[in-house]
Amino acid sequence: MSEKAKSTIVIKKIKKGGHGHHGGAWKIAYADFVTAMMAFFLLMWLLGSTTKGDLKGIADYFQSPLQVALAGGSGSGDANSVIQGGGASLTEQVGQIKRGEVEEARKRRAAERAARARREREQMEALKLRLEAAVQLNPKLAEMRHQIRIEITPDGLRIQIVDDFNRPMFALGGAQVQPYMRDLLQEIGKVLNEVDNKVALSGHTDSAPYVGGERGYSNWELSADRANASRRELIAGGMNADKVVRVVGLADSNLLNKDNPRDPLNRRIAIIVMNKLAEERLNGAGGEIEAGSAEEVERGIAPAGAAAAQPAVQEAAAPAAGTGAAATSVAPAAGPAAAGR
What we know:
By secondary structure, this protein is of the alpha+beta class. It contains eleven helices and five strands; from the N terminus they run αααααααββαβαββαα.
């Protein structure tokens, strides 16, 4: 017992070597590094794929952000980005309209108008051929072919039936349609009913005055009555009455032969088969529209470089004695009008 009491017990603890536990701080640092690299490469990709307009817009914005936001401009909006920036005013909600998009939309609308005008012209040319064929195939109408002028104008197809000293379209000084004129108008009405275009009619007279002067029955009433009589014959030939949108009398305000105001060619009926563009202008202007001249075709719907449309049939020269007879043959004082109208 004494020996056991004197012994000493020694306990040795051996510690193993190592670096110990450092925690998760390194993971956070690595994630920040990876995020920074992703942002850097994303920035490089955006800069590489951004157009000059976008870059200029970004630069202008950071140079003067308030001015660009309020006034807009090519720098802030002339870009290909799908995101619109800036605006013309603070009241606009859709953002600034990009100049490039405006130009593209304008070109697209111009191309659509040009294609539409070509289709309209082709349709009018086909209608012109049908009318010419209808006149040529009918022996009665063929005798009047020198009195028919068909031309394409910016407003559509204009059919003019001019008077002839030896073959007048209407009774002397009145609106009674002659039989051969009635046949012609009814044949035209049959052809016009094949298209869905609207029709406008206008009557024209020469400058021979009425005995009673302008206060009584004048060339204005006569031209309007003849235009309306022509409308009735077109409908009698089979044309739908709803196709007529305007019937006017223009008297001698638009002479065909201005050098000779009493030329029988000035007495005429004009039938305008309107194209869709003319119909839109008619609706927008409340009926105030007149077909353009043949010389306006090149500036209107004619293709570039094409010559202006020429009359389908050359105008026949008036007889040498026509003018003199029209001027000297005067109706009696009690009659309604001067002869030759």
